[in-house]
């Protein structure tokens, strides 16, 4: 019998470094060379290289921790706010004019805080089943709210006291060898992280969990602990980076860590990690951090130019430097994130470089790797229990079983609470409609987001799209002197272009919607600031502002005067934007509840695979939903600048958090498949009333805005937990069933 011939599979790829890292080194060299050519005065010096390595150190250390999270098929959007919060807490604990603690106690408390943040993230994602991007996005906003609240918008410095603790603060200074100590810490963290991920059981468990969590569970791996551990590593890495910044700057500002989550995620993905999990190398992430930081420096440093200045009638040439406008760097970083995520499925998994090299050398090309997600995927429609409860309930129970009943009841309770606290303010008709004006903007955004969430996607860019549409219209009105209709048309064009990018990248390139819209979140926000050069614009034709005025103001503008009476009183308090919002809500609600498109949206979100088998064009449904969300955000942006008669670059800030919370409170499921317009509008009313109540001046006290954002973040988490455990897992129903069955068994035994 002839022995069978075996074929060797060859050497396994290295988990430390490989060809991708070599390519990154070459790319870094070429990029730095381009910086030298463009701006030799800066990049041609050894100081520039030293500054690059120093600034890469902090980003790179956070990227080391993020590699563990992404390899687990999770995401940590809170690292930037964790970095900023730890730096601010260190400043408040250590500064002599605040709490004046010693450096050892301050560092220990900061480490404990960092570990607590990581533990909270891990528990939310694993044990409480909150989607990673929702849990960590909420922690991002909560952390940013704490940063602004603790600093009161001002920097905190402690350079005088730092002289008493030279050993710690030498961490941020240059050592005897001529380089900053942060570089040495970064090198140690990178090597240690690379060895742990590539050569230890921790790394094996991480890759197994990220590659196929279900199979990892069958293999006996404690996947929940593996994912919690990754969040702890990520948060502690951000803590270490923040302590390094505290040692270097000897102070902290409210801007610490802003958009760093974008920079770090892009670094890890550029370094070769897969957003789908199961792949990642720490050395690649460190090199990716160097690439992102270098790109950022090239863009921010600009390039030298010569300008001609007229002095006393004579032209004099002077040296100057051209830098990109405000917001431009943020645009490029958002674009970089999307491109980086596309690299993995279209270049790495398909082995584009190896196939191109095989084509050049005439060899047989290697087979493309599997480009899908995980090997095993469940096909389960979520929330069936809640639907069964609603169908089987009777009389009043039928209302209480509705998914939107909680939002409706909360709206009533909050309204009565406001009336009890400040009846003089709350019962005033003009104040009531002032609250309604704030509600209209959020409700418009929520209407569109209801479609997206019901279809099983998410749109994190709605607040930024609002700002983009508003800035575009304001730019055309103020700078170009355009007429109102042209400004509205250009604002619509800008907002819908953002929606088109979101829909194309999500549906066409099959990226997770939270990644595509996260990139657009930064791009649209950067473009909004770019158009207006980071300044507030105001002072255009009042004809445009009519879409944000009261009905009576519009009538007076056209020379119509209503007679005294109820009609005029109503016209004096009801706004055009409120009427428009209800008009859009009615149409959107009818479409979602009573048309085939609405049924297709819920079917797609409930079970994408089953909907496709049923003949539904799920790509078209998701595409239209994302476009509609962009349209609603655009309309809100156009009305925003009309209502305020100006555009502020911070317009729409935190609106994505409010809108997501509104939909979930209103009965929508974060996993898709459910959503009602009445529920979402009631959810928006809950958020609006909570904000109004927290800002209400009761006996001389009102809560600052930054603490309100922290409170709203907590509400979002609670709303998601209610959706997961009360509406879908029906824990109370299970508990009642268990108690009832226990009582029956006890009764039979007693009998």
UniProtKB/TrEMBL annotation:
Q: Name one Pfam family in it.
A: BPD_transp_2
Transmembrane segment boundaries? 20-39, 51-71, 77-95, 107-128, 134-158, 179-198, 228-246, 258-276, 320-343, 405-421, 433-454, 460-480, 487-508, 514-533, 554-574, 580-602, 623-644, 664-694, 706-726
CDD domains attached to this UniProt entry = TM_PBP1_transp_AraH_like (cd06579)
Q: Which UniProt keywords apply?
A: Cell membrane, Membrane, Transmembrane, Transmembrane helix
Kindly list the GO CC terms recorded for this protein: plasma membrane
The domain of life for this entry's organism is Bacteria
- Does the entry feature the keyword Glycoprotein, yes or no? no
- GO: which molecular function terms? transmembrane transporter activity
Q: Does the keyword Cell membrane apply?
A: yes
Localisation: Cell membrane
* Membrane topology type: Multi-pass membrane protein
Q: What is this protein called?
A: Sugar ABC transporter permease
**Species the sequence originates in:** Sinorhizobium alkalisoli
